[in-house]
Design goal:
The complex is a heterodimer of chains A (about 450) and B (about 300). Chain A has about 450 residues and is of the alpha/beta class. Chain A contains 14 helices and 17 strands. The chains are: A alpha/beta (about 450), B mainly alpha (about 300). The interface between A and B is large, with 68 and 40 residues. The structure holds iron/sulfur cluster (2 copies).
Amino acid sequence: MRLHGIKIPHKKNTAGIAPVELPIPSRVRIPMSMHIGRTSKVIVKKGDTVKVGQLIGQAEGFVSSDIHSSVSGTVEKIDEMITAGGDRVPCVSIVSDGRQEMYEGIKPPAVDDFDSFVKAVRQSGAVGLGGAGFPSFVKLGVDDLSRIDAVVINAAECEPYITSDTRTMIDKGGYVFKGIEAIKKYMGIRHFIIGIENNKREAISVMQELAGKTDGVGVRVLPSLYPQGSEKVLVYNTMKRIIPKGGLPLDIGVIVTNVTTLAFIAEYLEKGIPLVSKCLTVDGSAVKEPKNVIAPIGMSISDLIEAAGGLKNEPAKVMYGGPMMGITVPSMDEPVLKNTNAVIFMDSREAAPPKTTPCISCGACADHCPLRLDPRAIARAYKTDDGEELEKLCVDLCMECGCCAFVCPAHRPLVQTNKLGKLRLREYHDELKAQKEKEQKERETKAEKEKKTAQKGEVSHE
Amino acid sequence: MSKLISSVSPHFFTHRTTRTIMIDVIIALMPALTASAVIFGWRSLLIVGVCAASCVISEFLFEKLCKRENTAGDLSAVVTGMLLAFNLPVTIPVWQAVFGSIVAIIVVKQLFGGIGQNFANPAITARIVLMTAFSGTMTHWTAPVLPHDAVSSATPLAAAAKGIKESMPPYLELFLGNHSGCLGETCALALIIGGAYLLIRRVISWHTPVAFIGTVALMSLFCGRDVLYQVMSGGLLLGALFMATDYSTTPHTKWGKIIFGIGCGLLTVLIRFWGNLPEGVSFSILLMNILTPYITKLTRVKPLSGGVKA
Ligand code: SF4
Ligand code: SF4
C-alpha cells in the first residue's frame, strides 16, 4: 500500500548557501512557552543581569522545557504575550549589552548512563526543532527501553522554501552522527534510519558517506512527495508501521527525531551551550535575499528581516514555518522561537487567498489525503453537526497537513473545517460522557426510591 | 505598515479551479464538436450553441431569482449544455433543445442544490425527458451530409438490432462517425481523443471508462455480437468518457468507480440486446446514478488509523 501525497513547488532557493550569523539585536523577547506542554516558570526578575546560556525559565511538570537567555544584558521587564496558539504566557524581555558574554556555569555535561543523558538533554532546553516543539527529554526518556527497536531520523524537510535541516546535514553532519552514537551508547538502540527526500542531493551524499562509516545506520532516500516529513507518513514509508490513532511512535517501537534536534543534542553534549540560537530559513516572495541565518531566540521578526537583508515588497502574510503548515504571525514584533525553522514573508500576490466556490464533489481531497480521510464527508458531517459521523470519519486522525485543501479546485477551507470538526468531536465525547453520568445517577436515584417504597411497604404491612 | 493576513494553513494552493476543470472538459469536447459539424453540417453547431446558451442563462436567472451565489462563471452549465446537445439528433427543433436545457439546469441541477449536489446527470436526465416527451423528433435520424456507404439513415445500432446487414456502416465509417446518430456521439475517433486529453490532464480517471467499455465488450463477445461494432456505435464512448465520469453523480472511490462502470456496462448490454430500445447508455447511467450513494458507502476506504506493529 502506498500513501497518497501531493507534488508541490519545492522552492529550495537557499539550500546551497551556508547560513550567516546575524548581529545581536538590541533587545530580545523570550516567551515561556515555545514547546508543547506546561509553560515554564520565570526565575529572573526585572533588573537582573543575565548572560548567554543562563537559565531564565524553569521546566514545570512532566512535559515542559528549560529556557535560557540568548543574549547577555539586563532583564528589562517581564510581561505577557499571546502565543500563536492563543495562550497568554509570561515573556522575558532582555536588553542586550552587545558583549554576548557566556554564562560562567556553561560546561559540557557529565554523562555516563541513560539517566544522566536524559538529564543533560533536559538541561539543554532541546525541543523538536522540526517545528513540533515537543520537549526532547520527554521523547527520549522512555520508561521501557526494550520496547524501542529503531530511531527514525526525520530529514525529509518536505515543506517548500525551508532548507535549515538540509544545512544541518551539510554543515553539521558530524554532529548528527555523534548524536546517533550517543543514543546507541546511552539508550542501547542499534537501528537508525535517516529519511531524506530525494531533492537534497548534497545532504544525501554527506549522510551516505558518514553512514558508511557507522554501524546500523541506513539512509533512506524518499520521493519528494509532500507530506513525506510528517511523523505518520515517514514512519510508514521507512518502517512500514502505522502509528495508531491517538498514539505515539513509541507504541510501535519507534522514536522519531528531527535531524537538527539530534545534531543540537550532540553539540550540547560536547560544548554545553544550551538552545539559545536557531538556524532558520528566511525566504518568500517579499524577501530581498533569501538565505539561512543563525538568529538568537527571542529576536523579533522585524529585526530578523532587517538583519537578513530586508524586504523587496510589502509583506502581506508572514509565517513561522513553511507554506503548507506554517502559522501566520499577527505582527512583525513576534519573536523567533526555539522551534522556528523558517520565517516566510509573502507579498500580496503570493498571499492572495483563492476564491472559495461550492464543492463540486470531485473527490480530489479524499484522493490525496495520506491518512485516507474523506474531508468532503467530514465537512458535511460538521455542517450537519453530526458527532457520531465525525467519529466514524476519524476526524481526530487528521494531521492538518493541508494536502486536501491544496488540491481542492473549489478551494474549500478543508483544514479549517477539520480543526473545527475535531473540536466538535471533543464536545460530542463530553456530551456522551455527561449523558452516561446522568443516566447512571437516574438509575441510582430510582433504585433508591424503589428501595424506600419497598421499605415503606414493609412498614405498612406491619 | 498594512495589517498582516492571518489565516489557517495551508498558504499554497493548486492553480486548478472548477473553471479550469470545465475549460478542460470543453477543450476535450472540441474534436467531437468539429466532427459533428463536418458530419451533420452547420445545424449541429447551432444546436450546441442554443443548448449551451440556454443552460447558462437558466443557471444565471435561477440563481438570481433564488438569491444564490452566481456560479455561471464556472462554465459547468456550458459543459452541461454541450453534453445535452451531443445527445440530441441534429434535426431537433430549437425550442425542444431549449426546453431540454432548462430541465437539465433547473430541475435536475439547481433544484437539488446546484453544482456538486445533484444526484442525477443533468444532460442525461434531460435527454430522457425529451425522449419521453418528444419521441418523434428525438428519433428522427438524418443521414450525414457527407457521402457515405450506408443505404438507410437508421442508426447503426438500430440497424444491428434489426439485423439489417446492408445498412450497417463499415468499421472505418463507424470509427470516423460518418453515419447517423446523435450529433456528438458518432465520431469514435474524436471522442477518444477528447477522453485521452481528460485522462492526461487528470480530470477523469481511467477506472469508470475502462470498466464500462470493457464490460460492454466482454458481454458482446459472450453473447456472440460484433464487439467493435457495439463499442463504437451508439452513445457508449460519449457516455463512458464524458457522462459516467461526472463528479457529483458517480462514486469517488477507485472500487466504486469500477463497480459503477461494470453496472453501467451490464445495464447497457441488457437494454441493447434484450430491451425494446436500441440504445441503453443513458438509462444505464441514470440508473447507476441512483445507486451511487450506496456504492460510495460500500466502497468507502478505511482511514489509516493503524493499530498493531506490522
Ligand atoms: S489535512 Fe487532514 S484530511 Fe487533509 S489531507 Fe491532511 S490529514 Fe488528510
Ligand atoms: S476537493 Fe474540494 S471540490 Fe473536490 S470533493 Fe473535496 S471539497 Fe469538494
